[in-house]
Description:
8 helices, mainly alpha, about 0% strand
Amino acid sequence: MRLQPPDPTSMSEKQTEVYQAIASGPRGRVRGPLAVWLHRPELAEAAQALGSYCRYSSSLEPHLSELAILTTAQIWQSEFEWWAHKPPAIKSGLSLDVIEALRRGEKPDFDDPMAGAVFEVVRELNATRALGDQLYERALSILGRDRLVDLIGLCGYYTLISMTINAFDIGLPAGETNELTERHRPTE
């Protein structure tokens, strides 16, 4: 890890306040990107509020959220995010076949049109940095306005998470194994 989280014994009052707010919420602990963001507690506070909404309060059903998160993690080769969200994805009902296809970077076979739309939106947004008219119209008709808006917000948040993980080289906890293809950093 390039930047260690702040030492809890020497955090500022604001850092301690944000740390406690995160730890006492549904996450139950402070780790990964949120821990690094504590160097800028206002960023950590704002990001954790957005993340809490995206993960726990959006109109997307949990299996659709986790599908979008794992798809984003795979695209960004964000091992920590993959590791953190694979168990909730399984718990949400996302099939092991879908998860394995995602891990390999392949398009899964979806029985659910909503899941297919979520996957396509996440992939296209990341690949082209836009959403074409045909996919937009199809996703809107399948997901509805609220889910589509929440999906785009979730994509943005988990891209921020993945960028933070990759930029600060946030690795897995000791004893855990990478599952995604090794990412390559640009050379200087």
